[in-house]
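FIELD: query
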Amino acid sequence: MLNIRRSVVAFLVVGLMATLGPAAWAQEGARQGGQGGQRGGGMQPDAQLNRLSEALTLTDDQKAKIKPILEAQYKERTAISENQSLSQEDRGAKMRELNTSTQAKVKAVLTPEQQKKYAELQPQGGRGGQRQGAGGGEKKPN
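FIELD: result
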């Protein structure tokens, strides 16, 4: 009888964790600027802009020029991510192209000193590091 009770309690705990776990994860992502709860979209443009602004000390004029670049990137990343007709490989290639293009556009708005700092913020090699796009990942080279 005791084993049955333990089994029922364990089953209920596992069921509760399975039900509430994803909601807690999505809620945590929302607190972090949309990183966790948004599949494929990456970091929200405002959060990206804030991170870049802090790291690079952007002027108001630079912020006004960079924000639409980041918004367009976010929109395109989401569209690529949701396009089920693309293979995973094609999605990855399109994401890399988008990141490269966005980084070039952002870099064009920056001063030479900011460009140097911006390059240091970019993930090195491979798949582009975290799913955060231009300036989103402050991953340092190993």
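FIELD: remark
Residues 40-142 form one domain.
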